[in-house]
Design goal:
Blueprint (H helix, E strand, L loop, with lengths): L3 E8 L7 E10 L2 E9 L9 H8 L3 H4 L5 H12 L4 E3 L2 H14 L9 E3 H8 L10 H8 L9 H15 L1
Parallel strand pairs: 1-4, 4-5
Antiparallel strand pairs: 1-2, 2-3
Helix pairs in contact: 5-7, 6-7
């Protein structure tokens, strides 16, 4: 796949509407050409300590003065345009974005959504790749990856995976 936007969200708690960060990477002709990242005031605006401390390191004080999802999504839709979307674990990211769109009365975009996790599960033998997590697939494909669970870092890793396997 040569033209797409990879996307990743982080959530503040177990509710899919609680997006607290969103990252996106635009790929045109197989090359990363642009990046988008923003913290988001989550809905609902409460955090589970495990999520913020152990997973992504985003705290209530980081997002309390940030725009809500509807403002960020308006910017992001302009960034995405009519390009297809790609996510590593599409089921999670799509569920969260759909829930947040519904929460704010926003139409979910018609863009096709592809999943690098599902493609990796189909194409990479389990005995070769320890797991199909983003870090494991990156390691298997020789993609340098740091800062797991930072929405922009995850979106960029997903973009690099998609360039290689989609």
């Amino acid at each position: 796949m040569d033209n797409f936007v990879s996307i990743d969200v982080e959530t503040a708690n177990h509710l899919p509407t609680s997006i607290c960060a969103i990252g996106a990477v635009k790929v045109i002709n197989g090359q990363i050409i642009d990046r988008y990242y923003h913290l988001v005031k989550p809905e609902p605006n409460w955090y589970i300590k495990k999520f913020s401390e152990e997973i992504h390191g985003i705290y209530p004080e980081d997002t309390c003065c940030q725009p809500c999802f509807d403002t960020i999504w308006e910017q992001l839709i302009s960034f995405i345009g009519d390009l297809p979307l790609v996510a590593h674990n599409k089921a999670f990211d799509e569920r969260c974005i759909r829930a947040a769109c519904q929460c704010y009365g926003i139409d979910f975009p018609e863009n096709e959504i592809y999943c690098t996790l599902n493609k990796a599960r189909r194409d990479i033998p389990r005995k070769i790749c320890q797991s199909y997590s983003l870090p494991s697939v990156c390691k298997y494909l020789g993609i340098e990856f740091n800062n797991h669970h930072h929405a922009l870092a995850d979106a960029e890793a997903c973009a690099q995976i998609a360039i290689k396997i989609l």
